[in-house]
Amino acid sequence: MKRTILVVCLAFLPFILKAQKEGKGFIDSAREKLDGKELVTCFEKKLEWTKQDSNKIMLLDALCFFCSSFDPGLGIKYGLQALSLSQQMGYKKYLSNIYGNIGADYFQLSDFPKGLEYMFLSLKMDEESGRKEKIQLRLYNLSSAYFNIKEYSKALEYANRSLKICEELHDTLSIGLNFSNIGAIYSVELKSDEAFEYLFKALKIFEKVGDNPAIASTLSHISATYSDQKKFKEALDYASRALKINEDMGDKEGMCVNLSDIGNFYFGMATDSAGGMLIVHSEAYLAKAIEYYKRGEALCNETHQLEVLYEIEKTLSEAYELSGNYRDAIKSYKEYASIKDSLHSDNNKLKLARLETQREAELKEKQIEINKLAEIKKRDEHVLYTVAIVLLLAVILVVARNFMVQKKANKVKEELLLQKDLFMKEIHHRVKNNLQVISSLLDLQLLNIEDEHARNAMSESNTRVRSISLIHQQLYQSENINVIEFSKFAKELMYQVSSVFSNAGQKIVLKSTMPETKLDIDTAVPLGLILNELMTNSYKYAFGEPTEGFIEIALHHSQNYELIYKDSGPGLPVNAGGATGIGMKVIRSLCKQIGGDFVYMEQDKTFLVTFKDMAGRKTID
Q1: Which CATH number characterizes residue 571's domain?
Q2: What is the pTM of this model?
Q3: DSSP annotation of 502
Q4: Which of 106, 397, 579, 582 maximizes the CB count within 10 A of its CB?
Q5: Which domain holds residue 533?
Q6: Number of domains in the chain
Q7: Which helix or strand (DSSP H or E) is residue 610 part of?
Q8: Distance CA 339, CA 382 (A)
Q9: Residue 200: which pLDDT band, with cuts at 50, 70 and 90?
């Protein structure tokens, strides 16, 4: 847990430093005098009497940024107001910053899919304008976001792209930040040699420029990497240096993490020296561990850092038990249990807050659509007025009159077709949103289910709901609202299933041999659910202790469609091809819906699904 806290601090460092990259002069001046909440209050008052649209947009954008530190949901609200006003007034030069700030606020709420959506919009605009300083910052932010959702290959890809631009710009501090980020990625992948290479490069840069917060964070991460190797004495040395720097800066939150880490290292030295059993010569290490845990406990209570305190009390209870102090062990364990309940309650509140933020964002998006329809109506009224004038003149010019009537009819037809597409996309959008609400409610329900079988059943049902939601999302985002591109859907579906069922450190690769294939919704929904069942079974049963594996999917089409699915697992037991479990029953039932069949080939350990699209099924009927 403490390792995770350190990683998250490093991951969100670029969002904190963003003000140095994009801040306006008057904003920087104000920040020196006021804290975040005071600054937001000041900007809100200024916003009330500001009349110029460009100034309103800048103030709303600034509010979006500054709220991220204490109320990112409020920040998103201001950001969407800035976005709406910029689009209405045609002020494109502000859009990149607004998209970036909204994306950063969603990241703060841990809504990474929505945050990535806005961050990619920001990156696209910066790439079109060729602003390398901002491009490298967006790439860094994207790397940090992918790090937090455990897509380490993408995190490394964007970090290397950001590093390359930083080196072109000779931006020393940003080069150091990227080195630190890359080192963190290698560290969680347990590639210690590569992690040390980049972390020590970063440390050298930070020491040269005198950036003490970055030095302390990097020292802490180096100590965590040594801890992974069970080199506790080296880990202790770097953690102690980080603690000294944080003490000098008065950074109590950083000190809490350092004290907890040092306690862990002493505890590791005490137990590891005896293969997990306490012996006489380890008592000194154990006493040191308890000493640092107690210091961390006091500081966490002072700064209200429940997540760090949660881990301290848990391990402190074990340390007391090893030392024979059972009374204090029970006391610490009770504290640990109390904090666990509190964190559980806070997580529920956070999820509800995210749902509320999502609802407000959807209402804002709907308002933008309403504004667009109002503009279309206004344009239509102008066209009708013009046509009326032409008709008055067309009494003399019959040919001209017929031409204008035909032109009007064609335009009305185009408008009706356009409105039809907009309404269909809105329907798919609403279906997707309703399914996401159902998925969120299922997530909340899971928190109250203790029975493992019930939890697994609920999780599988949730992935099916998300699979259908993903199809509707692709439909409303697609140019053609009647079909989806299935190869892209399959890759996104694997990410969803992986986020629910994958274990920590597990790396599963999708090997796809699927040409661009467009399927109608009546075929895509059952086929998506079939693929969801197969992927779910792979994650549940195929991938055990080995942390690496693969899923291979191929799709062919001649007279019928053939979906071939295989994973790196041991396969089904012999003669189990006719298994009657609920998963197999669901798959066979879905195959019938799309005019197909489902077989398991034991020799190749491969599943084969044959099916027809809507046009093929109509031919049979």
Answers
A1: 3.30.565.10
A2: 0.49
A3: P
A4: 106
A5: 482-621
A6: 1
A7: strand 606-611
A8: 64
A9: very high
